[in-house]
Amino acid sequence: MRSAALYGTLGSLILTGLTGLPAAPAHALDPGLVEARGVALAASRAAAKGIDFGDCPAVEGLPEPIECGTVSVPLDYAHPNGKHIRLTVSRARAAGDEDERQGAIVFNPGGPGGNGMFYPLLTRLPQWRGISDAYDLIGYAPRGVGRSAPLSCVDPAGFVKGPTDAPQHPSAAYKKRQLAKAEAYARGCARRGGAGLRHFTSLNNARDLDVLRAALGEKKLTYMGASYGTYFGALYAEMFPTHVRRMVFDSIVNPDPRKVWYGNNLDQSEAFERRWGDWRRWVAHHHAVYHLGRTPKEVLASYEKASKRLAKRPAGGTVGPGQLQSAFLKSGYADSHWARDAQALSAYLHGDDDPLIALAGPGAGAEGARAAENENAVYTVVECNDTAWPHSWPTWEHDNDRLARKAPFETWSNAFMNLPCAFWKGPRQKPLEVRVDRKGGLPGVLLLAAERDAATPYKGALELQRRLGGSALVTERGAGTHGIGGGPNACVNRHLEKYLLDGELPARRTYCAPRAEPRATT
Question: Looking at residues 187-197, what average pLDDT do you find?
C-alpha cells in the first residue's frame, strides 16, 4: 500500500555553493551510490539554463496565472553528460509585496508516484495565504510520473477494471493466482521500462530535487514534503545538508533502512486496522443517521454483508469486494471521507447502488486509467529498486498470514500490491542511513505528524526526529488524517507558518489538540 499522494485539505478538494558541493557522508559512498561530483555538475548546468516558464499545457488542468516549464535531469547520475529526461514543473508566483518575498518553496505530495503539479492551486485556500504571499509555490512531477518520462507496466485500459475480490484470509489457490499476476507485472515493468528502469529510485529523486533547486536559482532549498515526500526529502537532507534553507516533513515515513520498504508496509497494514476501527466507532456513534449498527462490531457486520452481496452481484457490474475495500481504505487516510463512505454503504444496503458505484466504480475514463496505472507503476518501480525485498514466498506468506489474524482489513491487499518486488530483477539500492544534524550543516527541520496516521505510522516521525538533530516535532493528538499541514487545525498551521515565514521552530516536542470529528451528513 502506497503512502498516499493525498495532502490534508487539498487532497480532499482537488549559484553560489553549486561547484563547492559538500562531499557525501562517508557511509554514503558505497557501490550503490553516485559520487556527489556528478550531482554538482548536473545542478550547475541546470542552474545556468534555468526554467523557461510559460502557459501550462491543457492536459495539466492548471488555470492562469499558474505557469509551467520543464527541468532537465540526468537519467543516470553516474553519467551526468549522458541521457537526460525532463521533469514538468509548475509555479504560482508569490502574491505579496517585494519585501515579503522569500524565494521559492518546492512541494512533493507523496507516493511514490504522486504528481505534485497541482501544488500552486493552494494559493486559492485561505490557510495558505501567508505562505503564498511570501513564496513562489513550486509543484512538479518526479521522474516517471505524469509527463516526466512516464513509466508504465501494463496496458492502462485493463488496469482499473472490476469487479475483483479482496479476501482477508486468501486460500492457497487465490495466493497462487496472485503470485502469477505479480510475476507478470514485474516482467511488464522490465519490458516496458528497459535498461533505464533501474535509475528510478528514491536516491535519484533526491538528486533531482537538488537540480530543481539550482534551476530555480535558489542557493538553498525550501521544501515541503508529505508522506513519501518526507523519505526522499530526508535523503536530500543527508546528502546535501548545506543546501537546505528550511524543510517541512508532514506525515513521516520511517527512514530506518531495516524498515525500507517491506517492514514499513507490514507496519502500515497494522496501523490501518486501528484506523478502520476509528471509522467504525464513529459510524456506530451516528447510527441514527446511517443505520449501520450501534457498535463497531455491528458496523463491521454491515460492511461484510455488503462485501458478500457484491461478490454475488457486483454493483453496476464493476464494483466488487475489491473495489469496496479499496474505496473504504480511503477513510483511513482522511476524516473527510468518513461521512461519504458511511452514506454510500447505508444507501447500498437499503437498495440504492448509485452512491457506491460513484464512490468505488472505475468511472475515471481513459485519462484517469492512464494516471492510475502510471502512479502504480512508479510506486512499484521505485520501491522495488530502492532495496532488497524477500524473494522467498514462504517469508511473505508467514508474515502476512500472521499479521492478518489481528489486522485483516488491509494486510493481504497490501501484500499483493507489493508482491512484484519478490520477482524484481537487476541491481537493488542499499538504503541510505539518514543521520545528520546542525554540526553537519543541516538547519532545524519541522516535522508534522498525527498520532493515529495509518499510512505513515507515528513511530516513523519519532524515528526521523532521532536521526535529524535539532528538528522539532508537532503532533496532532488523537487524530489520524494523513497530511495535517494547511488543514483545519489552527494550532498545526500556526507552527507551520511561524517556521516557513520566520524560521521559528517550536519546542522539540510540541502537541496540538485534535481537530473536530466530522459531522454526520448525508
Answer: 97
